[in-house]
Amino acid sequence: MTVPRDASAVEVLADLRCAGRRVARYAVRPDLDPRLSPRPYLHPVTTLAGVVVTEELPADHLHHLGAGVAVPDVDGHSFWGGRTFVRDRGPVLLDNHGVQRHTGWHRKQDGRIEEDLVWEAGGAALLRERRSVTATALTDRAWALGLTFALTPAGEPVTIGSPATNGRPGAGYGGFFWRAPKEAGAPAVLTPDADGEEAVHGRSADWLALAGDGWTLVLAGADEDTRRDPWFVRTAEYPGVGSSLAWSHPVTLGAGQTLVRRVAVVVADGRLDRDAAGDLAKRAKEAVTP
Q1: Which among 220, 216, 233 has a CA at the least distance from the CA of 272?
Q2: In this prediction, what percent of the chain has a pLDDT beyond 70?
Q3: Phi then psi for 138, rounded to 5 degrees?
Q4: Nearest Cα residue to 108 out of 31, 184, 14
Q5: Burial track 47-74 (b if 16+ CB lie within 10 A, e otherwise)
Q6: Would you say residue 94 has pLDDT above 70?
Q7: What confidence tier does 169 reach under pLDDT thresholds 50, 70, 90?
Q8: How many C-beta atoms surround the C-beta of residue 5 within 10 A?
Q9: Which of 81, 69, 55, 80 is nearest to 1 (CA)?
Q10: Under DSSP, is residue 210 helix (H, G, I), strand (E, B) or coil?
Q11: What is the DSSP annotation of 139-196?
Q12: In this structure, what is the dihedral angle of CA atoms 147, 266, 28, 16, given to the nearest 10 degrees?
């Protein structure tokens, strides 16, 4: 699989700035292997002190691209990348990958971008998306990333699924996803009332914190629909978290129907305790709410 890693292979769509510095780059890789489901993504995302808290093209999962929106099953097409879980067969590399194409800007400023995208596979447009990404200062050691996406079928009804809905228990990933850097030790993960991957994976929670070496991410749903989505969490195998659209059952969008999810992420220097994480999660949700 061809994987471009040089900086010249990256097309920067926009930079997000906060508190006088760049805190995130929003980019695509035009020559990315189609089997990785090319799409716009955020990388590098940094703390205010400059610590990088995203990863792209890691050796363990080449299709993990920083932070963004990725779905493994849209009418049988993968907008996640890599292998597809097939019932009674397991993970199989299929020729079923789609691409998310940026089609136009509505706003492009230092701290806010709004764009249109089309999700295409098999020569057809399946979904149209309106996406916004924002950066807001919270303290001198933390800022809030807001990401809202609205998905509408491009024509006929569309069904969104996951490996779990196709027969792989516990693998209900797909939606907003954040791949963090792999470090010598696994990051800590906690919610308001639970600690550890096993305790938080597959459960809904008001917020979820992932803490590594000198950084903490606090993810929270910024509206009721998003807060109902279970969290997909990996720490032992690799550091990644996401908010899941189809955890146990497929979701069908009728023609003209729109699915909206709004996520707030605190990007903080240092390791936050539970009280600090909860306080900043509340402030972040308020900061990204229109």
Answers
A1: 216
A2: 98
A3: -110, -50
A4: 14
A5: bbeebebbbbbbeebbbbbbbbbbbbbb
A6: yes
A7: very high
A8: 9
A9: 81
A10: strand
A11: ETTEEEEEEEEEEEESSS-EEEE-TTTTT-TT----EEEEEPPP-SSPPEEEETTEES
A12: 90
> Cβ neighbours of residue 90 under 8 Å, at least 6 residues apart?
none
Instruction: Kindly give the pairing relationship between strand 175-179 and strand 77-79.
Output: unpaired
Instruction: For the beta carbon of residue 101, count every other beta carbon within 10 angstroms.
Output: 16
* Pair 159, 252: CB distance under 8 Å: yes
What is the C-alpha separation between 1 and 112, in angstroms, rounded?
34
* Identity of the amino acid at 173: Y
Give dist(CA 133, CA 107) in Å, integer: 10
Token duo for residue 152: 């509408």
**256: its two tokens:** 């003209």
Asked if 100 contacts 119 with a C-beta cutoff of 8 angstroms, the reply is yes
| Token output for 65 | 């691209």
Average pLDDT over residues 177-206: 98
Round to whole Å and give the CA distance between 135 and 236.
Answer: 29
At a CB cut-off of 8 Å and minimum separation 6, what does 275 contact? Answer: none
Confidence (pLDDT) at 80:
98
Type of residue at 24:
A
pTM of the model: 0.97
DSSP string, 8-50: GG-EEEEEEEETTEEEEEEEE-TT--GGG----EEEEEB-TT-
Reported residue count of the chain is 290
Using the structure block, give the residue that is written with the tokens 């890789």: 29
Distances (CA, A) of 31 to 34, 206, 218, 240: 8, 38, 32, 25
CA angle 79, 107, 267 (to 5 degrees): 65
Q: How far apart are CA 176 and CA 244, in angstroms?
A: 7
